[in-house]
Recover the amino acids of this structure.
């Protein structure tokens, strides 16, 4: 079947002829003599439903319609096949859809504004009135989470769902603007209101299709959908721009749309990595099969993906279908060691070794159990602020964040930590960054990591948060992973969540480097980059986790470099580490890159943002001596003072707040009451940095409920 002339379509690039013979066959398969559907029932109202006593999100309002929805649907001729369509938004728990007490499905667990559809076979409906119910089963599962959702625009139509989704066909094509070559990527398809729509697809092995989303390996896709007006967006991860077109389809019609996108963020010598990737095939939850996962990796342009299914080896290299995928990335085998004391990504793995024992009760056991596989170079502490199995690793009752110290003396069983997990965002997105600062000050110079924790094709986007590693990326299909992982462990990384922040000290020292500075001042250059579809509005420079510089950024959506500046700052009187953090507003009307709400929210009002976090540069100020952390300075100060507090406070005058925190920590460990120390005349006359550090430590110590070590 030849595509008919199409009407009502505007292109953001000039349309070109589509040289795709295979698409014609797929189009034929997707348009097999469609039978027009007949609308039986329609309710265009939208209902706010709430599970839980408290509002989950403030923007839903305080007065829900109810905990569930019951609608009466009259049907005169029930002995046929029907299709049910429901628009919903904000779904984070399981909500059942029932007709006459028969379960016909669930609302898709996805926060996005989207339409789910269901086949209603003959025998479910009865003559006369039928009852549609939408209700959560969260209570039955013991969930203590709340959930605000909106449901509505409910339609019941005669006809099979498979026929309903074959009203029209979209033939899509994506090319690199510079090379004109077909390329992997993602098409996002929404209706005129920006709602993700249900899609059908024929036998196309190179696609991963979900509601409103189509990933393609070879740049081509043919999908069927209802006749109507749509916006189609074409993207390929963080580094590329976005192209879009308005498309109008009619029944029994095939429409072609072609897109071109260009690389907007230049990252030569930087390897893009997502170190936290799951599959349904091995982890048993989510929805991404192994083949779909490989397609999404290529579509989001992740060059070194790390597969980390739960407590199981998942070697996706055996699933690679030919060379179409192999040239785009180099797989690394890993695993998420999922324990009751935290989750830890470990890689690379020797699959000939037994799976490390995960039934542990301490972090030391985690370290010991992963030490047997000498191949493992990286141990990432995942989302330590999240609660799993009744345990939150960095809970304020256990962990003094500013000191990077676990009050039971547990040592971090790894050399890296997630700063942004885009599948489990924090209400305060800077909270993990501050935790990281505390660890470095406490002598745990772990690598900062960005990752997606994606188990799905589209709910949590693979690579939305990612890590950039300083290494050769010219041949993504044959990366030198040994060298890359060595640089990863050395901290030669940057975390990207819609922005990229790079730092250089005295022009040459970059993330992960130590530089000796003997001059009175030093230059610190920060560059903030991103695609045209994100914006930056501020950048902050931290020394030992303390803000020392800040700048506003005016960015209308510049592609590539959004801001670059060099500060001349006085060389500090002691060793420090420097980190730059850039941020900007998270756009709410970007269905192709929607930012999910926090995974375990602590607030009901939340504003999304994009961020870029540089790696740390270590500034050594004493000639001939290695770099020292705040904790190392504190140990020396406490030892030299030998109990003489007046001498201790005097010696601390030239040190910053981070050293004061560590000194307070060690005095506490020695049995001193920090609250009592802060009442002494010597303390009250000490420097402001000493007082600030002690007070911060004391405030966090009180949250643990402990007064003595």
């Amino acid at each position: 079947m030849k595509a008919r002339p199409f009407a009502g379509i505007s292109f953001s690039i000039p349309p070109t002829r589509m040289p795709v013979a295979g698409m014609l066959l797929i189009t034929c398969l997707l348009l097999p003599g469609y039978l027009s559907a007949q609308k039986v029932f329609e309710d265009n109202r939208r209902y706010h439903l709430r599970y839980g006593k408290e509002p989950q999100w403030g923007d839903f309002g305080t007065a829900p319609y109810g905990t569930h929805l019951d609608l009466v649907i009259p049907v005169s001729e029930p002995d046929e096949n029907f299709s049910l369509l429901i628009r919903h938004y904000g779904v984070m728990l399981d909500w059942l859809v029932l007709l006459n007490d028969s379960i016909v499905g669930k609302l898709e667990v996805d926060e996005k504004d989207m339409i789910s559809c269901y086949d209603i076979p003959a025998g479910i409906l009865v003559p006369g009135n039928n009852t549609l119910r939408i209700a959560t089963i969260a209570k039955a599962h013991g969930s203590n989470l709340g959930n605000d959702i909106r449901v509505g625009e409910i339609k019941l139509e005669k006809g099979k769902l498979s026929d309903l989704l074959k009203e029209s066909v979209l033939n899509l094509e994506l090319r690199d603007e510079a090379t004109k070559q077909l390329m992997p990527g993602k098409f996002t398809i929404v209706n005129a209101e920006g709602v993700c729509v249900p899609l059908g697809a024929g036998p196309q092995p190179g696609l991963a299709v979900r509601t409103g989303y189509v990933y393609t390996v070879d740049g081509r896709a043919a999908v069927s959908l209802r006749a109507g007006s749509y916006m189609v967006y074409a993207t390929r991860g963080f580094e590329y721009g976005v192209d879009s077109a308005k498309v109008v389809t009619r029944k029994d019609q095939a429409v072609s749309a072609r897109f071109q996108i260009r690389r907007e963020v230049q990252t030569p010598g930087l390897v893009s990595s997502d170190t936290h990737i799951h599959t349904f095939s091995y982890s048993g939850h989510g929805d991404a099969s192994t083949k779909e996962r490989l397609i999404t990796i290529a579509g989001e342009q992740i060059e070194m993906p790390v597969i980390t299914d739960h407590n199981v080896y998942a070697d996706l290299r055996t699933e690679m279908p030919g060379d179409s995928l192999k040239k785009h990335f180099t797989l690394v085998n890993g695993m998420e060691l999922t324990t009751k004391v935290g989750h830890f990504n470990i890689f690379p793995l020797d699959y000939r070794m037994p799976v490390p024992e995960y039934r542990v009760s301490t972090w030391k056991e985690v370290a010991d159990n992963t030490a047997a596989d000498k191949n493992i170079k990286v141990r990432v502490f995942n989302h330590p602020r999240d609660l799993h199995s009744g345990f939150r690793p960095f809970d304020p009752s256990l962990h003094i964040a500013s000191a990077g110290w676990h009050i039971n003396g547990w040592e971090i069983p790894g050399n890296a930590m997630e700063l942004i997990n885009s599948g489990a965002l924090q209400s305060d997105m800077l909270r993990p960054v501050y935790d990281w600062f505390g660890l470095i000050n406490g002598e745990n110079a772990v690598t900062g990591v960005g990752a997606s924790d994606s188990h799905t094709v589209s709910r949590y986007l693979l690579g939305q948060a990612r890590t950039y590693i300083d290494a050769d990326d010219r041949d993504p299909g044959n990366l030198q992973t040994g060298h890359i992982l060595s640089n990863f462990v050395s901290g030669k990384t940057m975390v990207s969540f819609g922005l990229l922040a790079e730092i250089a000290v005295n022009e040459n020292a970059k993330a992960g480097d130590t530089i000796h500075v003997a001059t009175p001042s030093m230059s610190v250059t920060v560059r903030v980059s991103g695609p045209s579809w994100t914006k930056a509005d501020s950048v902050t420079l931290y020394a030992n986790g303390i803000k020392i510089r800040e700048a506003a950024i005016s960015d209308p959506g510049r592609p590539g470099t959004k801001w670059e500046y060099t500060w001349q700052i006085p060389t500090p009187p002691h060793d420090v580490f420097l980190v730059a953090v850039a941020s900007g507003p998270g756009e709410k009307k970007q269905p192709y890159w929607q930012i999910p709400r926090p995974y375990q929210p602590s607030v009901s009002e939340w504003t999304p943002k994009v961020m870029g976090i540089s790696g740390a540069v270590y500034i050594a100020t004493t000639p001939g001596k290695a770099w020292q952390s705040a904790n190392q300075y504190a140990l020396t100060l406490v030892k030299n003072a030998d109990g003489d507090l007046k001498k201790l406070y005097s010696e601390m005058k030239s040190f910053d707040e981070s050293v004061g925190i560590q000194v307070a920590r060690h005095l506490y460990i020695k049995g001193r009451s920090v609250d009592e120390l802060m009442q002494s005349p010597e303390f009250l006359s000490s420097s402001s940095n000493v007082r600030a550090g002690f007070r911060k430590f004391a405030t966090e110590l009180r949250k643990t409920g402990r007064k003595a070590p």
The chain has five domains: 10-34+166-261, 38-163, 264-491, 498-626, 630-703.
